[in-house]
Amino acid sequence: MVDLSAVMGTLLKGLANSRVTSDIYSRDVSLKYEEDPILRLFPVPRIEIKEVTISLPFTIKNIEQGPVQKDEIIKSIQKVEASKFADHLYSAVILKQKNREVLLTQINETQFKKNISKTLEKQLSLRVNYIEKALEGKKEDLNILLAEATRKELLSDPALAKELLTRLNQESLTKLLEQTTNDFLDTVLLKDAKKAIQTAQEKATIIDVGVTASELDGVPENLTTRITVVSDMRNYKWTQVEEVNGKPVRNLIPE
């Protein structure tokens, strides 16, 4: 099996390598020019590739879905989802309470969201399989887990706990958090997870192509495809931007 992306990558890599080979040759020749009293009067030859056009004929043999690690994809979005949940919780639980002005005096919004986000991220990292089950429609375990973790975090601050429990008893608070968490799962987390997985699956699609003469031999013209790639070979140069511990720090920038 030859993946189309691998074919294109190999072509572009070959172009870059050809430029490297050419520059190495120019370097070696420059040393000879420098040593010769006559040649040193002439400019050192150097081939600069401005633009390359490649027309690649191929035939599609098969299209299949490549492997996707759902657990790794879920892990990659946990931090963002935890931050979103902190915002969601603050709006749904804190800002909707009666006499919230008094309640807000006990809360540093930034620190509150930071603590909730950290708690949720930890729970999600420990229970990746819960999210996978939720994506299959079995979200009860995940909902209870996150609601309980959030409840403990909210009540860990004595002053905040006192203000909350003057408005809600323990049972009401638990139900409110389960409702809030369930709403977040439906409207945000699971949708984001599905989208991330779908995007990964699209990127993981493998297009098996035939590109060799033997593979294209006898294939009707209407069953072949052609890609024309125009590549602009850009030059980069090193530039010193600063010094650290007496050593120059340099970056590559386009000329």
Proportion of residues in β-strands: 15-25%
Radius of gyration: 30 Å
> Which structural class do you get from the secondary structure elements?
alpha+beta
Largest sheet: 3 strands, antiparallel
Strand order of the largest sheet: 2-1-3
- Which runs of at least 5 residues are low in confidence (pLDDT < 50)? none
Helix and strand pattern = HEHHHHHHHEHEEE
Structural domains: how many: 2
What is the helix fraction of residues, given as a range? 55-70%
Mean pLDDT: 90
Q: Helical segment tally?
A: 9
Strand elements, count: 5
How far is the first residue's CA from the last residue's CA? Answer: 39 Å
Shape: elongated
Task: Describe it.
The chain has 255 residues and is α+β, with helices and mostly antiparallel strands. The chain has 2 domains: 4-54 and 225-254, no CATH class; 70-203, no CATH class. 60% of the residues lie in helices and 18% in strands. It contains 9 helices and 5 strands, in the order H-E-H-H-H-H-H-H-H-E-H-E-E-E. The strands form 2 sheets. Strands 2-1-3 form a 3-stranded antiparallel β-sheet. A hairpin with a 2-residue loop joins strand 4 (236-244) and strand 5. Helix 4 runs antiparallel to helix 6.
